[in-house]
Design goal:
It is a single chain. This protein has helices at about 1-15, 35-65, 75-85, 90-95, 100-145, 160-180, 185-190, 195-205, 220-225, and strands at about 15-25, 30-35, 155, 160, 230, 235. Helices cover about 65% and strands about 10% of the residues. By secondary structure, the chain is mainly alpha-helical. It contains 9 helices and 6 strands, in the order αββααααββααααββ. A hairpin with a 5-residue loop joins β1 (about 15-25) and β2 (about 30-35).
């Protein structure tokens, strides 16, 4: 079942495309440029960095406009409203919470590329959910057998050896998921998961984006704080 799910994910990946219209010197539409699979992901990532640059520039423009005493309060209010319309967030809100910058960038990206990203990430979530539920079922069965005396519990350093074996097995399965993903896919997953707490917990639990270089993030210093240590059903999930 797991490898069938992986195959489906690969089929979805190969089926992703992104079309850009081209025009000649006379303004007539000509053959479009079509990006498929990994090239599509690459273009989406490029778009994110373009949005980031625009957000940074607009924040600087607002700061300068508000600091200029020549501008009236009415003009400043209109300028702030324009910023909010473009980025779907108030300037003062993002100023007080700079860690939201990446979420603003990804939201704008997802709004544009939801047809390419939506199905891909939904299926990926179900793969990771299948692993976690299967892992929990196996551990539950083991604990039941231990309770009945059919299995012996061996504990070393306060950890049940058999439970650790099960977790290690499913960690290896999650490694198959990660191995099929490019660095660009991991980059997009990093930000997509910020909007879905259940997905974020699974990504963090199986350390799917653990190999992603922090230098490749939109805002390295701030974004490293977006995955804090969390407690999930009594189980501590380490921060990235």
């Amino acid at each position: 079942t797991f490898f069938n799910l992986l195959k489906t994910q690969n089929d979805i990946r190969q089926g992703i495309d992104y079309q850009v219209d081209n025009y000649n010197d006379h303004g007539t539409k000509v053959n479009p440029t079509i990006y498929n699979s990994q090239t599509a992901f690459t273009e989406i990532k490029k778009f994110m960095f373009t949005v980031k640059e625009n957000l940074n520039k607009n924040c600087s423009k607002v700061e300068a406009f508000l600091a200029d005493d020549k501008n009236t309060e009415e003009e400043k209010t209109k300028f702030l409203k324009k910023f909010e319309t473009v980025h779907s967030i108030e300037y003062y809100h993002i100023l007080a919470n700079p860690e939201l910058s990446s979420k603003v960038v990804y939201k704008e990206t997802f709004d544009k590329f939801h047809n390419q990203l939506g199905h891909y990430f939904r299926n990926l979530y179900h793969i990771l959910l299948y692993l976690k539920e299967s892992e929990e079922n196996e551990i539950g069965l083991l604990l039941h057998q231990q309770l009945l005396g059919k299995k012996v519990s061996i504990v070393i350093n306060e950890k049940d050896i058999e439970i650790q074996k099960i977790k290690k097995k499913f960690s290896k399965y999650s490694d198959f998921v990660q191995a099929q993903m490019s660095a660009t896919e991991l980059f997009l997953l990093f930000y997509n998961s910020l909007f879905f707490s259940k997905m974020k917990k699974l990504v963090q639990y199986y350390q799917i984006v653990g190999n992603l270089s922090s230098d490749d993030l939109l805002y390295p210093e701030k974004d490293n704080l977006l995955y804090p240590e969390i407690n999930n059903k009594g189980e501590l999930i380490q921060k990235l």
